[in-house]
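User: Hello! My lab partner asked me to get a predicted holo structure for this protein. The small molecule is zinc ion, SMILES included with the sequence. Please write out the structure tokens.
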Amino acid sequence: MENFDPKELPKRALKQIRSLCRGNGAQNDAIQIKNSKEKMISCQAMTTITLEPDIKNEQKKGRHQVGQVLENIDQVQKATQEIVKNTLNNPETRKTISNDLMQRNDQGFASHGELIGADQLNQSFSYHAACQNCQGQGSATCQTCQGQRQERCNKCHGVSMISCPQCQGRGTTLGPNNQQVNCNRCGGRQQIGCILCQRTGRVACRNCRGSGASKCGSCNGTAFFTHITHLIIKIKTLFEVVRNEHPPIITSTLEQKGAKLAARKHIKIRASQIKKDDGGLAIQYNVKFPYSVMDIDINGQTSKIKVLGYKGKIIKTPDFLDHLLGTKTYSLSEIAQNGASADSSLQKLSRTRFIGEALLLTLLHKRKKAMIELKRKFPIGASKNLIQNTILDSKKAIAKITQKSRLLGIGIGIIITLIMDIIYFFLDMRPSLLSIVGNPQMMLLIDLSFIILGGFIAAKISSYMAKRPLRQALGHLITNSAEKKIKAGSSSDQWISYIASALIFLILAFIAGENSPHWLTFF
Ligand SMILES: [Zn+2]
Ligand SMILES: [Zn+2]
Ligand SMILES: [Zn+2]
Ligand SMILES: [Zn+2]
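Assistant: Hello! Below are the structure tokens for the protein in complex with zinc ion.
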């Protein structure tokens, strides 16, 4: 690159423009470069690096050793502030941060407002503090017995006597001579002392097992909390081209596309870490590249183009494709509107490369994707309008030339559906299905599947029929591998197919008499 001859730029630009014009209405001889002025440009640029600290707090039950363990929150805050303040003063850290950036493909050139994680700078701090809920005891007064250690006996409900289990509280039992005799357990008193609480009416609290205290629910009995602070540091970039006497388009191109230009070696940059006047960290770039302004003649029309970098990247150009394709795109939109004698003229139009590509992309992709792909094939020379309108008109034109076949396909599909439904209702198909299934409710599902099947068949036939006119008009564009991916039908065709199938089914269902579905009575 040292011995690069800037005279190369016009040659490279010419090659690119000729290749974009190929097949689009300008012969190579009709495209020529005139009045080219080249020079080498050197300038300086700088990416300033600042820190973006972020703090995330968390809390864990118990004492844990997380990161650096300090005494209290004040110490943690002080420590994090120190780190944020001192990180950029440390020469080692400055080197690590700037090297990370300079080792990227673009060497950090033109990185502006980018947030980059710097994991090696992240740190965690923690301190331990007593649980507020239990004052660091780990336990609290038992809520069940309020610290009384005992609770009411739930066998005798605190009255210390229970109904005698032997005589069921009657006081008497049946004696040997079928006479009522006093119960020998309670002696006729009908009650006996409660066995569970030994007549005290109270038992040891089951929640705290008689200790009067229970585990603190807040700290889970650990008495402490570990408060953790994670300091997460990201670096943020700010890029500027040092003002120079070069044309503004150079500054704006470097600012907007500099990263790619540097990564792909369109421009040569030498990066070095520097200390700014305010002590801040920055990467300074010495930038060098060839630049050229020239006139280009396309079919006798002269316009200016600007070319930058060792690979001859065209950074400014008139929309020459708009100009070359003017009448062709007009014809396309006429076909899109009126469709008159469309087949033959669309075939002719599709031989223009730009329009051919647009038509093929429209067959293969959704509208938005097709626009993006077309822009990728023609990155310069075509205005945004040209790209959008050509894709939109392609879609409409294709709909126009397939219209008759698609409708015919739906028509055939509807007739098939009609025949299927007649067999279903009037040739005893549904009644015999019903006798197999047995359940009239289940028949609703089968009816529904029948409607969907009819719509599916009509939509399929329609999209199959649409392929014929497509192949006639655009067959030369469609390769074998593309053939499989082409979507010839439209979503409105599908709707029409399914709705038609449902209508036919309903009409026949109504006139089917005793074979009418059960669920029709709901209507
Ligand atoms: Zn606690
Ligand atoms: Zn208790
Ligand atoms: Zn008894
Ligand atoms: Zn008791």
